[in-house]
Design goal:
single chain, mainly alpha, Growth Hormone, Chain: A, membrane, MFS_Transporters, about 75% helix, MFS transporter
């Protein structure tokens, strides 16, 4: 099985994706089956150790802070050590940290393992996203990322029900399930996905000295990763800012919703039911993406529509006081997520220079780490001081701001990506210099 398709095997919208992508999607779905534990981290801390809501928010913020270097290291390892190796290391590390949280006998020990989990939590994300970008052409990336999200959503349906059941028994069992899922995912990745090519472990110095290819300096000039400088790319940084605001909103749903339900006198574990409803919406909504009105949406328009639906759904949460009343807003914001998913990652992958996909995706992915620091602090403070209504209306306003600004950023990024289409395309094994793009 090969990691990259040949040029004459370029995919169209009617052709199957490479088996590499399907194996990766399947492995991540297994991982997602047990990945609802973090949504209940703050609840576990407050109920198990009697900590205040603010203290639980601070511990969650420490986790978010730890994920920032984790994501960046994951990008570096993806481009240098190899995609598959990095994914396996990250998943095994997550399992160890999750088991540590379960076995911890004090709040201090729990904090240690929460921070350790943050340090390894994002290692596998950049290589997973980069492996998809490697395996398909630029025009198929949004579709591939969307299918990944749909598979994760399908697994999320089972995970939500699992969380709702186990959460009523012992919240720590959610972390056990998550750890086992990480190990199973690592096993699938290690045994089913193609191995990392030798070039993945080639250092920049070796590449610069001309080792690894006998086709001349012209090819080396196109493959040496010396020009990869994501932190100096203003277009990428603008996307990062918008992505951080989106992640801030999304993490309020995933991390604060159980607390909101408890605040309104509902069982926190009922959040699992709402997460399942969201996942079901995304899975059943996949055929909608093939309908002409949605299939022909440009990326800027899709951003505007998606964020508007998110804003409407969160505004609906502000007035909901029963589990049933939370269901309709959940479906609305999930439809927005369905439209948005994959588009930002496809833009970032297109912007990346050759051999820099992992690092570009890693820098963009730090949006989740930054938001992971801010979201628990902002969410818990808003909830504690002004209540659920203020929390959800604030998040709704943030989505409306993104609905206005993100389309403009998308147009700029699309224009930039079209100018650098050749460097961002998947690079096959060393071969004669590629022809210039026809535009």
């Amino acid at each position: 099985m090969r990691l990259l398709p040949d040029a004459d095997q370029a995919l169209t919208r009617d052709q199957a994706l490479p088996r590499t992508v399907w194996w990766l999607i399947g492995a991540r779905a297994v991982n997602r089956l047990g990945a609802f534990s973090l949504s209940f981290l703050t609840v576990l801390i407050t109920t198990q150790y009697g900590a205040s809501t603010a203290t639980a928010g601070s511990i969650s913020a420490a986790f978010g802070l730890a994920t920032v270097p984790s994501r960046l290291v994951g990008g570096q390892l993806a481009d240098r050590l190899g995609r598959r190796r990095t994914i396996v290391v990250g998943l095994v590390g997550c399992a160890v940290a999750q088991f540590g949280i379960v076995m911890a006998s004090s709040l201090a020990m729990t904090v240690v393992f929460v921070v350790l989990l943050g340090l390894v939590f994002e290692l596998y994300e950049p290589p997973s996203q980069a492996m998809i970008a490697d395996a398909v052409g630029p025009t198929e990336r949004t579709r591939a990322y969307s299918l990944l999200n749909a598979a994760l959503a399908a697994a999320g349906m089972g995970a939500g029900l699992l969380a709702a059941g186990l959460g009523r028994w012992d919240l720590r069992q959610l972390f056990v399930v998550d750890a086992v899922a990480c190990l199973l995912c690592a096993l699938v990745v290690r045994n089913a996905l193609p191995g990392d090519p030798p070039r993945a472990v080639q250092t920049a110095a070796e590449a610069g000295s001309g080792r690894g290819s006998g086709s001349g300096s012209k090819v080396e000039a196109q493959t040496v990763p010396v020009a990869v400088a994501p932190w100096r790319d203003s277009t990428l940084l603008a996307l990062l800012a918008a992505g951080t605001l989106f992640a801030l909103v999304y993490l309020q749903i995933m991390a604060t919703l159980p607390l909101v339900l408890a605040h309104r006198g509902l069982p926190p574990a009922d959040a699992g039911v709402l997460f399942t409803a969201s996942a079901l919406t995304i899975v059943l909504g996949q055929p909608l993406l093939r309908l002409k009105p949605l299939a022909t949406l440009s990326t800027p328009v899709a951003f505007g529509v998606g964020y508007t639906l998110l804003a409407a759904g969160l505004a609906g949460y502000s007035a909901a006081h029963t589990l049933g009343a939370h269901l309709a807003p959940t479906i609305v914001w999930s439809l927005g997520d369905l439209i948005l998913v994959g588009r930002a990652y496809a833009l970032v992958a297109a912007l990346a220079p050759a051999h820099g996909t992992g690092r570009y995706l890693a820098v963009y992915g730090t949006s989740w780490g930054i938001a992971g620091i801010a979201a628990p602090l902002i969410g818990t403070q808003l909830l504690q001081r002004w209540g659920p209504t203020a929390l959800w209306l604030t998040m709704s306003a943030a989505c409306l701001a993104l609905a206005i600004t993100q389309p403009r950023l998308a147009r700029t990024a699309t224009a930039r990506a079209s100018q650098t289409a050749e460097p961002s395309a998947p690079a096959p094994a060393p071969a004669p210099a590629p022809k210039a793009s026809s535009g």
